[in-house]
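pls design
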């Protein structure tokens, strides 16, 4: 699958800094990296989705759009995809990068000490954030899905993706692979997208 635009969505637990130099390494693709930092009160998920949708629209993306989520942005991909369809933009695929899959909120958690590399901004969250159920459209998935496992943090999520018949790739350099190895992560993403 050849995307028109890749949209890299950072976790609500971090900022766009979690993508490091990956956007530049993803040439020749058009890449959009929304920065969502005004979702710090309930309802958290809908606020993130609304802001991300506004930034995607403002960027003037070229369809088909491939939505790429890191970490806790994973459960929000279905709602962000629904917002793209509502704006009459074709979603060509969904890619989860060491991300939580859509479903119950119980799989989400903060970062442990030493897990976050230098240069990545982490955002603190209260218990309400972790208990909130992410929004989930009934008709999802509406496009091919893939999973890029970069650490053992979400090993169970990668197994679930395989069980669903999704394309799954491994690039075991750590949860913040985009920061630690942008070129290698870009290559793993290109390979995974070709399988969608």
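designed seq:
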């Amino acid at each position: 699958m050849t995307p028109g635009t890749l949209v890299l969505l950072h976790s609500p637990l971090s900022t766009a800094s979690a993508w490091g130099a990956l956007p530049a390494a993803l040439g020749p693709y058009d890449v959009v990296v929304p920065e969502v930092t005004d979702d710090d009160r309930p309802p958290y998920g809908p606020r993130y989705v609304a802001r991300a949708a506004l930034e995607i629209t403002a960027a003037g993306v070229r369809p088909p759009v491939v939505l790429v989520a890191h970490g806790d942005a994973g459960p929000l991909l279905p709602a962000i995809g629904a917002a793209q369809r509502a704006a009459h933009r074709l979603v060509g695929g969904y890619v989860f990068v060491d991300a939580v899959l859509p479903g119950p909120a119980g799989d989400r958690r903060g970062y442990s000490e030493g897990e976050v590399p230098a240069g990545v901004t982490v955002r603190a969250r209260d218990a309400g954030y972790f208990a909130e159920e992410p929004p989930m459209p009934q008709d999802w998935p509406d496009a091919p899905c893939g999973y890029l496992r970069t650490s053992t943090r979400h090993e169970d999520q990668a197994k679930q993706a395989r069980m669903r018949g999704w394309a799954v790739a491994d690039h075991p350099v750590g949860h913040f692979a985009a920061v630690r190895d942008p070129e290698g992560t870009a290559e793993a993403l290109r390979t995974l997208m070709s399988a969608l």
